[in-house]
Amino acid sequence: MGEALWISWYDLQDDRRDAYLDWCHARYIPRLLERRGYLWAAHYASVDRDRMAATHPDFVTPTTADAAVPTGDRYILIVAGEDANVFGDPVPNALHAGLPQEDRAMLGMRTGERVNVMVEAARVDGPSAKTYAGGATPGPCIQIGSYNCDPAAEEEMLAWYTQWRMAAMRTLTGCIRTRKLASVSGWAKHGVIYEFDSVEIRNRQYPRHEADRPDMKAWTKRMVLKLTHAPGSANLAERIWPAVSK
After folding, report:
1. What is the rounded CA–CA span in Å between residue 52 and residue 55?
2. pLDDT tens figures, 180-239
3. What is the secondary structure of 91-143 as a DSSP string?
4. DSSP 163
5. Least packed by Cβ within 10 Å: which of 83, 114, 155, 246?
């Protein structure tokens, strides 16, 4: 059975960032991981767009125009559970409501928060999985997408991920693994996490994986234009907890 992931995207005010992160890493996350069924957690900071090499510079990925969808995306917290029911009793909102007042005050520093609970529908390992020492915890760099798809196009999306995108990640230098996600709750129905050794390796390798496959590049364009992403998606992010060994 694939792991379940409780994923939170949010922003922080600069003047409160350090206090929040100290609390989050020293108190909040360790206490979550004491709960039955919780497996691991990883906290990421999104990199600025000018540090993210474009995967397909010839077209723009569609983003939702729904003003009701929260727009936070500078920080991404991923918490894993044995299955989705781990996050069903209590659900995240109820868990947070039951925390001490000082912890609720720290959570109140988050702005624009968007939350999904997703399950891992499929996983493939890349070449760097052989040397990665982090176990199931995602790698030092992730690219994470969260999006919806017209149901009429979902079968083609399944074929594209299976036959091309995830298959290509098996041999892409610097790729640790790729996880395709299906939503249990939250705005986005679909998600994907690509794990890399570093931002630099991702920027060097990932945009070039279709260079010698114009047929697959055309399929990617056709498929991606059928998706509607959450604000900020896809995010490229670096892990800030657990600390990355230099």
Report:
1. 9
2. 999 999 999 999 999 999 999 999 999 999 999 999 999 999 999 999 999 999 999 999
3. -HHHHHHTS-HHHHHHHTT-EEEEEEEEEEEEEEE-GGGGT--STTS--SEEE
4. I
5. 246
